[in-house]
Known about the structure:
By secondary structure, the protein is α/β, with parallel strands linked by helices. The protein has seven helices and eight strands, in the order ββββααβαβααβααβ. Helix 3 (70-79) runs parallel beside helix 5 (104-121) and helix 5 crosses helix 7 (148-169). The radius of gyration is 18 Å and the shape is globular.
Amino acid sequence: QTVNPVKETQETEMPDTTVTISYLALGDSYTIGESVSTSKRWPVQLRDSLLNSGFDTVNVEIIARTGWTTGELLSAIESGNSEGPYELVSLLIGVNNQFRNYEFSIYEQEFEVLLKKAITFAGNDTSRVIVLSIPDYGVTPFGQNQNPEKIAREIDRYNQYAHTVCETYNVAYFD
């Protein structure tokens, strides 16, 4: 968090408590909020919660698109001009790797690279990075018409791997 320096007044010295947070959300359709209004995107809801918790300004940058795999998110990051450090970086990615039946080894390799990039965006401070589990779309009407048991099993595998990698890097993981 950024705190402005103390400002002097004629009567007393009062600290300026204006606190600004820069937040980078990395992901796919779950992050961008496919088919929901901008205000219903979870990174925007998180911003609103932070504002309600006393932060004066929360600047949100979202790098996410519907359908993105880990590789497509990596390409977007590499071709973009995002700079840190950010006070908060979130990562939620992988459902499209599973949905497209990509080899799990691709996710294993690229997820770790993405996590390292998220840590770099956070000024190498792992306490400012969060990873969110991939929601199980097998419980949705769309997923019920696929193979919900297979979807659940595969999403669990992805989430277990992400959780393990987060523990290795001392990054908070939210299921």
